[in-house]
Amino acid sequence: MDLGSRRSGKDRAAGPASRPAQTRRPPLFSGRFLVFALVFLAGLTLFDFVRFSDGVARLAPPAGIKAEGIVALTGGAARIDGALALLADGRGERLLISGVNPAVGRREIAKKTAGDQMRILNGDVDLGHAARDTIGNADEARDWAMKNGFRSLIIVTSDYHMPRSMIELAGAMPDTALIPYPVSNPQLDMTRWWRHTASLKLLMAEYVKYTLARARLAVESPWGATPAATPVRSAAAKAEADAR
């Protein structure tokens, strides 16, 4: 007895049951695709690096700014000089120098600044010794601003360091208005960074750190976006209103 499926005479005449032809699909990650993806990614990274570097080259200290507090991130005498000048000019009520070596005091800082700054350093200036990096600077500045009840800050640091500093600080204190005040290193030529090896290497290293900081903050943010833009715009608007 035939217990299997029966085929009609017409089917048997047609021969064995035909199977649908299988089309061969090219592999998704073929060599050509990978080369294209790598070239595209390299071009995108190069474009973003040029955008970042040109943005740094265009940074300049704003005029007529004013805030409740001033924060200088250590890393060069020009940053301290710029912050002390702002404090002396009444642009802020108090100054925090963040990231100071615990072994360094006001007298040592005064020796590295231009002119006799000891009187100002002994006044409305606080030294922060806890920060070891830019993330630590952001935490230290946040705690200092909360302690003093400040809702607006002028941030003083080097021009190449400003983009990363602003996103770290904005991430630590999203409700505080931040006004960037970039200072330039006279030994570096950022306006023609592509012609100078030292400037190019510095910008490349800073770009990597900046990109990693953006990625980390994007993951930590509940909305998956870095919170740097809003505080900067609100700070700029406030500074313009105060200047009027």
Commentary on this structure:
- InterPro entries: Cell_Envelope_Assoc (IPR051599), DUF218 (IPR003848).
- Keywords: Membrane, Transmembrane, Transmembrane helix.
- This protein has 9 helices and 5 strands; from the N terminus they run ααβαβααβαβαβαα.
- It is α/β, with parallel strands linked by helices and 244 residues long.
- It has one domain: 3-Layer(aba) Sandwich (Rossmann fold), CATH 3.40.50.
- α3 links the parallel β1 and β2.
- α6 crosses α7 and α7 runs parallel beside α8.
- The termini are far apart.
- The N terminus and C terminus are likely disordered.
Keywords:
elongated, transmembrane, Cell_Envelope_Assoc, transmembrane helix, alpha/beta, DUF218, disordered N terminus, five-stranded parallel beta sheet, 244 residues, Rossmann fold, 5 strands
